[in-house]
Amino acid sequence: MTPGAVRNSREDVIAVALRLLDETGLADVTMRRLAGALDVQPSALYWHFTDKQTLLAAVSDRILDRAPVPPEREGDTWAGRALAAARALREALLAYRDGAELVASSLALGLGGNAARERLRAALGLGDFDAYIVDAGADAILQFLLGHVAHEQQRMQADSLGVIAAAHAVRAEDAAQPFGQAAAFDFGVNLLLDGLAKHVRTPSPAAPLAV
Question: What does the pLDDT look like over 31-55, one tens digit per residue?
Answer without folding.
Answer: 999 999 999 999 999 999 999 999 9
